[in-house]
Automatic annotation (TrEMBL):
The lineage of its organism: Bacteria, Bacillati, Bacillota, Clostridia, Eubacteriales. Its cofactor is Mg(2+); Mn(2+). Its EC number is 1.1.1.83. It comes from the Bacteria. It holds the Pfam family Iso_dh. One of its GO terms (molecular function) is D-malate dehydrogenase (decarboxylating) (NAD+) activity. This is D-malate dehydrogenase (decarboxylating).
Length: 356
């Protein structure tokens, strides 16, 4: 029997609460399928580890993760630890070390999910955002030119390499071709007169190899407006690291909230492990209360199954999430219910069993 080795990093805040439910679902899938299974290894890394050891993960953390087929991450961040440390020293270092240059974020209004927009049908919000995940505005390059008030000057560089732009844009074109969908390029070439001009150039250049793919280009400000006003404009979206980060939180808001938004950090060549996570943070405001919505984590588990080639199971999990939402009996407070995190996970597991 094929066994997938999964490194689980539950992390901080609601991370462990929600990831636990995703693990339950994955275990049930393997039990029902019978031809593959999962070996989960848990790594207690994150802010608690940092407060004890001064590091978010051990020095050889990346080496330890290297041998796994995938990483399943909860969330990192805690009030006592600066955000740029918790983010950089764990999440971003994993994304970079394992060259997870694609961040794939579905923005899809599932049956039964609440939508704050009026006059929108379920089919109107059904897109995938392909976010550049290795460089751009999050390249981590910059300097403190002058320290001290009042003339402090800080520089943060954005880095756009040809290889970096080409590979993510090509990935998006391939996806659009495979799924026979339109592709929208989101950039900001009018104001960012080097980086985004170059990005657009690469987008148009690669487009010549994909005459069958219908494309659009939008500035990020206009795209934000259309996400709200006319989300049906978008099918596949490709954009830079920062714009993708912001747009997908907006995407989460129009498609049911942070408790329903999943993301995959992919190394498409499979040279290194890919990482699957809910896109929300550690949510300290609701941590420890067992009320976090686990459906985003469960959705990211379905992305993991897709990536392993078990798309049929990925679809079953999405159908189960829709069933949880439409039945409406077992929902966490963010979706207007009174159930706990684990009650929602248990409901998903029992619907999964019933579906098979
Ligand atoms: P980060 O910087 O790590 O992205 P953040 O500051 O953006 O974190 P989140 O932790 O994502 O914040 O939380 C934003 C809001 O969404 C909070 O009010 C939080 O309670 C809510 N939220 C996040 N995740 C969930 C969840 N799984 N279920 C319910 N509510 C959630
Ligand atoms: Mg956030």
């Amino acid at each position: 029997m094929k066994k997938y080795r999964i490194a689980v990093i539950p992390g901080d805040g609601v991370g462990p609460e929600v990831i636990n439910e995703g693990v339950k679902v994955l275990n049930k899938v393997s039990e029902l399928d019978g031809t593959f299974g999962f070996d989960f290894t848990f790594f207690p890394w994150g802010c608690e580890y940092y407060l004890e050891n001064g590091l978010m993960m051990p020095k050889d953390g990346i080496d330890q993760l290297k041998e796994f087929d995938a990483i399943y991450l909860g969330a990192v961040g805690a009030p006592g630890v600066p955000d740029h440390i918790s983010l950089w020293d764990l999440l971003l270092i994993i994304r970079k070390s394992f060259d997870q240059y694609i961040n794939l974020r579905p923005v899809k209004l599932l049956e039964g999910a609440p939508c704050p927009l009026t006059g929108v049908k379920k089919e109107d919000i059904d897109m995938v955002v392909v976010r550049e995940n290795s460089e751009g505005e999050y390249a981590g390059s910059g300097s403190w030119l002058y320290k001290g008030k009042p003339n402090e000057v800080v520089i943060q560089n954005a880095v756009f390499s040809r290889v970096g732009c080409e590979r993510v844009i090509r990935y998006a074109y391939e996806l659009a071709r495979k799924e026979k969908k339109t592709l929208t390029n989101v950039s900001k070439a009018n104001a960012l007169n080097y980086s985004m001009v170059f990005w657009d150039e690469v987008f148009n250049e690669i487009g010549r190899e994909y005459p069958d793919v219908r494309t659009y280009s939008l500035l990020v400000d206009a795209a934000s407006m259309f996400f709200v006003k006319q989300p049906q404009r978008f099918q596949i979206v490709v954009t830079s690291n920062l714009f993708g980060d912001i747009l997908t939180d907006l995407g989460a808001a129009i498609a049911g909230g942070m408790g329903l938004a999943a993301g995959a950090n992919l190394n498409p060549e499979r040279k290194f492990p890919s990482m699957f996570e809910p896109i929300h943070g550690s949510a300290p405001d609701i941590a420890g209360k067992s009320i976090a919505n686990p459906l985003a984590s469960i959705w990211s588990a379905s992305q993991m199954l897709d990536f392993f080639g078990h798309e049929e199971w990925g679809k079953v999990i999405i159908a189960v999430i829709e069933q949880v939402l439409t039945e409406g009996q077992t929902l966490t407070p963010d979706l207007g219910g009174k159930s706990s995190t684990s009650e929602v996970g248990d409901a998903a597991v029992s619907m999964l069993s019933a579906a098979y």
